[in-house]
């Protein structure tokens, strides 16, 4: 499979009231999501997030954190939070559908029935919706968050991540058209430069056979050094930007621990949340929380592609010794040092006493993995797939050029593209590094509005490389990927918006008129529910009632049976 | 367009080809400037918040995940 596996990206966006920077971000986030749920989706969406399968306190190291000892911000499975401030009506009543009795019934992967809750007043704001592209769009803490649908390749990850940018942009535009609602600007970044950080998390489904200690050992030096090619760049150093100057990563200064369950405080390099949303005996979900939000498509593509192919190597079970030897003496300190070293030339201390630069460490990874992919191809007689070959070639090329000619990488490497214009303005106007105009440029870099965003201006001027066709992005706003369970989720929402009361990664809850109960269809295998699997079935049923009758009456077609 | 760009400047800053008022830019950064960057900077001048200091001060977010 190499770079191909189930993966996805969750992005919390920065939010700011235009002309009203003090406006309540929780309320604005709810308004943004609600505007899209009501106006942005054909037919509207009443499907809400179902919290039944959430277990955010399960730790990959094999235990569960007691709820009473968890920080409140870790309890992400409580549908009554976050709530807008003040006296706004409740939200997220969505999950309340989960309250009923369950009785197994039907034949299709265990469709179950739930008692239909009593009719409830429609809340004025919704905190949590499922989009027809299979994504989850909701309010997390004080930010609107887009969790992309499950995809199987880094290029598809870029497509549905870019679709997320468009969803957010359209939400703000729709909101601005509603009388009395605020105008908001949205930012795809990870810090306000004043001590707050919000995340862009990558998720990778990994074979359960890989020992978690291997993930810690082999991913730590990789994640610490990968910002050299996928960092988004940030003006200011330190969590509050205490020191003037530029750095490679948005997120690095907020890394404070090597391994841990937390995501909102003492953020670790390796996050141990172990909620696979799949068969837990076969898979774990690696939740990477140290990455930057990228505007550059190449940065997102390589961030996902290189991480995925490293996980493939770990799944092979035989990791070359060269990788074991890359253990860092001080991973957290190294994460900060890598981000602050614009020369890319400062060596890091390794546990075995050697010293290597971030680029030298990345060179070992790319060479070891390229050799392993080559050997695998020879052994199996099959060439690596196109994206795997492309990711490896680009990765190797960038590691070489970042050392020899970094200025040549600005079209592909986001932190260098931003540095190019920041430094251009700084020298043209003779500004100090802490000048507000440079700080404004850094923040406006990721403003989603094409008329205001600096990245958008760079893209329009063809100063950065694009990977996906705008028409593909447009389609990905309203259509799910076809090769994961997101297809069934998204298509069900798109075709039967009135017949779905809730959904989550693991299940869809149908509310079919005339039926006594809600019906919960599990989607526990991320590789089922694909177009190949259920496309004909969906096409054959014009309404949800008929689809559900078919699902509960006949065994599903086998995945292998093709059309 | 050009005149508007200057109007939008928060505080007019000396151009590098004026008399240098402070320490000269470093050699590396000076060589990074090229025609494409100059053209991009013209566009950025057009869209950059006119009161950069107020904008930056007001950009306050709540912590997230």
TrEMBL record, chain B:
There is a cross-link at residue 65 (Isoglutamyl lysine isopeptide (Gln-Lys) (interchain with K-? in acceptor proteins)). InterPro entries: Ubiquitin-like_Pup (IPR008515). Residues 1-18 have a biased composition (Basic and acidic residues). It holds the Pfam family Pup. Keywords: Isopeptide bond, Ubl conjugation pathway. Residues 22-59 are annotated as: ARC ATPase binding. Coiled coil: none annotated. The modification Deamidated glutamine is found at residue 65. Is modified by deamidation of its C-terminal glutamine to glutamate by the deamidase Dop, a prerequisite to the subsequent pupylation process. Residues 1-36 are annotated as: Disordered. Pathway: Protein degradation; proteasomal Pup-dependent pathway. Belongs to the prokaryotic ubiquitin-like protein family. HAMAP family: Pup. Strongly interacts with the proteasome-associated ATPase ARC through a hydrophobic interface; the interacting region of Pup lies in its C-terminal half. There is one Pup binding site per ARC hexamer ring. Protein modifier that is covalently attached to lysine residues of substrate proteins, thereby targeting them for proteasomal degradation. The tagging system is termed pupylation. The N-terminal unstructured half of Pup provides a signal required to initiate unfolding and degradation by the proteasome but is not needed for pupylation, while the C-terminal helical half of Pup interacts with ARC to target proteins to the proteasome. This is Prokaryotic ubiquitin-like protein Pup. It comes from Occultella gossypii.
